[in-house]
Amino acid sequence: MHRDKDHDHGNRVVTETGNSPDTTVPIVVYTLYLAGVVTGGLTALIGVVIAYVYRGKGPYWLDEHYRYQIRTFWLALLYFAVSGLLTLVMIGFVTWLLAVVWLVVRCVKGLKGLQEKRVPDNVETWLF
User: Fold this and answer.
1) Which domain of life is it from (predicted)?
2) CA–CA distance, 28 with 49 (Å, rounded to integer)
3) pTM of the predicted model as reported, rounded to 2 decimal places
4) Model confidence pLDDT, tens digit, residues 39-85
5) In the chain, how many H helices and how many E strands?
6) Closest CA to 32 of 59, 60, 54
7) In the chain, where are the structural domains located?
């Protein structure tokens, strides 16, 4: 199979010729992350393992989704751990809610990027 790729990191434009890759696995990872909110992070742990396994096996724009997912997992772990510590001073409940909103926004942005077959916005950011 022959594939041509054009990468413009500034505009996040990716042009592919040939068969379009299956986006089912990264969709499942984003869904597992969202389910992690109610499973105490168990499904998110499964999701990050999947992201690590599939990273580097697809076109550039899809690999960037796996990188985004891996970063999202580790940042979420940090944010939820800090929120857990902050519950000792009663502000942790607010920061936990903010971390949930942050996670949902990142997952929705990632899913939107997958739907458009492009790199997620702001892969390197600690925010959205």
Assistant:
1) Bacteria
2) 12
3) 0.82
4) 999 999 999 999 999 999 999 999 999 999 999 999 999 999 999 99
5) 4, 2
6) 54
7) 5-115
* DSSP 8-class letter at 55: T
HEC readout, 8-29:
ECCCCEEEECCCCCCCHHHHHH
Strand 13-16 and strand 5-8: the pairing is antiparallel
Q: Is the dihedral of CA 111, 25, 28, 20 positive or negative?
A: positive
126: exposed, middle or buried (C-beta count within 10 Å: 0-12, 13-18, 19+)? exposed
Judge contact between 114 and 65, C-beta under 8 A: yes
Beta bridge partners of 15: 6
Q: If you search the block for the tokens 């969709």, which residue do you land on?
A: 27
pLDDT band, residue 25 (cuts 50/70/90):
very high
Report which secondary-structure segment, H or E, holds 6: strand 5-8
122 pLDDT tier (thresholds 50, 70, 90): confident
State how far the Cα of 57 lies from the Cα of 35, in Å rounded to an integer: 25
Contact 76, 101 (CB under 8 A): no
